[in-house]
Amino acid sequence: MTPRSAGPHLCDLSSAEVLTATAGRTVVWPVGSVEQHGPHLPLSVDTLLADAFARQIAHELNALTLPVQSIAARSLPQSGGGLAFPGTIHVRGGSLLAFLEDALESLCALPWHRLLIVNGHFENEPFLFEALDEVGRRPVAAGKEFLALSWWSLVDTDWLAGRVPLFPGWHAEHAGLTETSLMLYLRPDLVSAARPDHADPPRPGVYLHPVDVDRTTNQGVLSSTSNATAALGKDLFRHVVAAAVALVSEGNGLLREETS
Ligand SMILES: [Zn+2]
Questions:
Q1: Which domains does the chain have, with CATH numbers?
Q2: CB–CB of 150/178 below 8 Å?
Q3: Bridge partners, 65 (sequence order)
Q4: Is the N or C terminus of the chain more exposed, i.e. has fewer CB atoms within 10 Å?
């Protein structure tokens, strides 16, 4: 597996080509963020990872890719360090939801059959799912399938337990062991030598205000990074891509059978 191999980009097609080229196909749309990821990783982690997963999945499914959407939902203190750290750029939830609905409705004008959204940013998930649920009810989406997933949702619990024994929960993996490992595999040129650990990861599903970011994080890291390796990143990348391809190929028994 070559991690940066790509399926064809939908936007590289001409207007004269696009109807024929997309008819009945699968389109993969990566969505990430511009968000602080500690002192050792760039702001682009969620965007780069979503794009890398999407390109590889599209390659294996003979699908088309859309350009990655990088500016998205707000970073929150218990799952991303929040807005206390410079460089985190976002839009408010209402704006994101309206953007996603408009973009999805416009995209539905093309004759593709299935859209797969690959998400790389924890806080995007409810907005993506709501937008798809809304647009999926509209006439323009008739006959189309939507799948959306956050890449970490495809990681098997037992598989992970064998590799990350003290797993803190995905909300706290922000800038942690798994994202650092994936970046060491995919873009080591963007990873610096610092490996901060935070001994007391926040609980999932809890919001606090005011919050002391120096207690909630260690320099923006919510859990640990010190055992991150490119080898773990490679295994994780392959694991997620295989699960995504299986999910799309088999429908996992969840998608409704075509009746007409
Ligand atoms: Zn991230």
A1: 23-249 (3.40.50.10310)
A2: no
A3: 9, 28
A4: C
The whole-angstrom separation of Cα 234 and Cα 250 is: 24
Average pLDDT over residues 72-77: 97
- Residue pointed to by tokens 């008819």: 23
Ligand 1: centre distance to CA 49 (Å): 8
Written as six digits, the tokens of 196 are 């901060």
| Neighbour-count burial for 95-108, b at 16+ CB within 10 Å, e otherwise | ebbebbbeebeebb
Length of the chain counted residue by residue: 260
- Catalytic residue list: 35, 37, 46, 121, 123, 174, 179
Q: What's the order of all strands across the beta sheet hosting 114-119?
A: 64-65, 26-31, 114-119, 145-150
**Residue 257: what pLDDT?**
55
pLDDT tens, 143-186?
999 999 999 999 999 999 999 989 999 999 999 999 999 999 99
Q: Is the pLDDT at 102 greater than 60, yes or no?
A: yes
Q: Tokens 């859990």 belong to which residue?
A: 223
What is the whole-number distance in angstroms between the Cα of residue 75 and the centre of ligand 1? 10
Task: Tell me, in angstroms, the distance from the centre of ligand 1 to residue 14's CA.
Answer: 34
Q: Average per-residue pLDDT in the chain?
A: 94
Q: Which residues contact 147 (CB under 8 A, 6 or more apart)?
A: 114, 115, 116, 117, 247, 248, 255
Closest listed residue to residue 248, CA positions, set 53, 116, 108? 116
Amino acid at residue number 183: M
